[in-house]
Amino acid sequence: MTSSFDTSILDWGLVAHSMAGDRSEDIVLAGSGGQQASMTLSTLFTQTHRSTSLVLAIDSLIIVLIAYDLALVSEVFLGQLSHLIWAIPLFATTSTWFSYRSRKSWAYWPGAIILTLASLLFLLLFILNLYYVILGSVGSILFLLIMGYASYSSFNRMRYHFSPLYKQGYHTFVSTPEANLMDGEMLAACPNCMAVLAIRPDLLSPADTCPHCKNPLVSRDLASRHGWEEE
């Protein structure tokens, strides 16, 4: 069982030292909070896929509701044809979600596309509410925060689809390199390139960089809040 400090490291997706041998060539998800160090990659994928399916369902519903509102507005000009504006998205998103949840191969990228469209839609609503806040509308602050988080969350879920491990788990299976971990090691992911690494939390420092993308593994802000000094 890991300490609360170890768990917080995983929650932030921070990693320190590369895995021995060729294990560093594997890929895991970055930004998936709440995992325990003992969790297998197979379990991690199942948990991540389940939560991504939920986000996809919510995003699909919002897209259909917005399409329905557009259909009502355009009914004056298009008549009965306006129903296609929401009927087509309803059919597309519903069939995609059911197939995505069942891990059908064809639904993998359509699901990612829906998440991308939702993220862009939320971003536009974020900008709109930001404009209202600038004009002095205090009531728009709540919607500003909600739309900002919704856009970020949907974008992150879309980004998972570029992870080779997530793609492998969706279509086939997930390997379990945890069996080769040494004492004191745990699996986590680089927050930049998502390369899987075996970390030693007691050796983590702001000076550490990812052996693959060479980017810092610990932000300066997080390091200062934890009292870490760069070596």
What does this molecule look like?
This protein has 231 residues and is mostly helical. It contains 7 helices and 2 strands, in the order ααααααββα. The chain starts with a helix and ends in a 5-residue tail after the last helix. The N terminus is likely disordered.
Question: Uncertain regions: pLDDT < 50 for 5+ in a row?
Answer: 1-39
Derived from helix and strand composition plus strand pairing, the structural class reads mainly alpha
Categorize the overall geometry. flat
Cα-atom Rg, whole angstroms? Answer: 21 Å
Secondary structure: number of strands: 2
Distance between the termini: 29 Å
Biggest sheet character:
2 strands, antiparallel
Order of helices and strands: HHHHHHEEH
Mean pLDDT across residues: 74
Q: Helical region count?
A: 7
List the helices and strands and how they pair.
Elements: H1 4-11, H2 41-78, H3 84-101, H4 108-134, H5 140-159, H6 164-171, E1 186-189, E2 196-199, H7 220-226
Antiparallel strand pairs: 1-2
Helix pairs in contact: 2-3, 2-4, 2-6, 3-4, 4-5
What tags apply to this protein structure?
231 residues; mainly alpha; flat
Brief summary:
By secondary structure, the protein is mainly alpha-helical. The chain has helices at residues 4-11, 41-78, 84-101, 108-134, 140-159, 164-171, 220-226, and strands at 186-189, 196-199.
